Amino acid sequence: MFHENTCGAHFGYSFDKPGRRDTLPSRRPGGVESNPHRTLKSVLFVCTGNTCRSPMAEALFRELVKARSDYQVASAGVAAAPGMAASKHTTAILKERGIDLSNFQSRMLDQAMLEAATHVFAMSVNHQAVIEEEFPSHADKVYLVSEFAADDSLRGRDVSDPFGQGRAAYDETLADLEKMLPSLLAYVDQTWREPEA
Q1: pTM of this structure
Q2: Is pLDDT larger for residue 14 or for residue 47?
Q3: Alpha-carbon dihedral sign for residues 113, 50, 75, 176
Q4: What span, in angstroms and rounded, lies between the C-alpha atoms of 174 and 62?
Q5: Is it the case that residue 18 has pLDDT exceeding 70?
């Protein structure tokens, strides 16, 4: 059974961690292109059950890139029961921002999703470790969602899991993601390279 690490310690992540390329390989097996002239950046957010944090991150990031044709956004869970709706608080909090999650269905992370993804962002250090252990061939594209946060107090922190808690916990999770995602987008844009012809 998957257990969350709720520690909020600062892990000192940076763009140039030893053993990590700060520019991800630009072509992945199973990659998709939105049109012949634009390479699609396929961003995947991962949490445990894919009903709270990762659907929230997916929805917020979609809003950030909604005017762009070069992004595809999805989410999944390392221990998800497929076909579950997003949690009621996640659905409600996003509806207030004009985002409809009524058709959302949870998905279990698998090899095909990771092959299609160009960037994978885990909600916690434990999620990151599980992905890297179970799918080692994709470890170079897996990051902590807070890894590039501009706010020093958030960088390297796990995104708190609001599951089973009240609305206030979901508000806190959403507020943290809203601070983290713009820097994450900037990182992807700054380090992306078009595939060689």
Answers
A1: 0.81
A2: 47
A3: negative
A4: 14
A5: no
Contact 46, 110 (CB under 8 A): no
**34, 70 Cβ separation under 8 angstroms:** yes
Helix residue spans in 53-119 (DSSP H): 53-64, 88-95, 111-116
Residues sharing a CB contact under 8 Å with residue 121, sequence separation 6 or more, in sequence order:
43, 44, 45, 46, 57, 142, 143, 144, 145, 147, 184
Tokens of 64: 């950030």
Q: How far apart are CA 67 and CA 44, in angstroms?
A: 18
Q: Which of 131, 10, 119 is nearest to 61 (CA)?
A: 119
As annotated, the active-site residues are: 47, 53, 161
Identify the sign of the CA torsion 89, 93, 98, 104. Answer: negative
The number of residues in the chain equals 197
- For 91-149, how does the pLDDT look when each residue is reduced to its tens digit (9 = 90+)? 999 999 999 999 999 999 999 999 999 999 999 999 999 999 999 999 999 999 999 99
**Strand order of the sheet with strand 41-47?**
71-77, 41-47, 119-122, 142-144
Q: How far apart are CA 117 and CA 24, in angstroms?
A: 11
- Give pLDDT tens digits for 44-57: 999 999 999 999 99
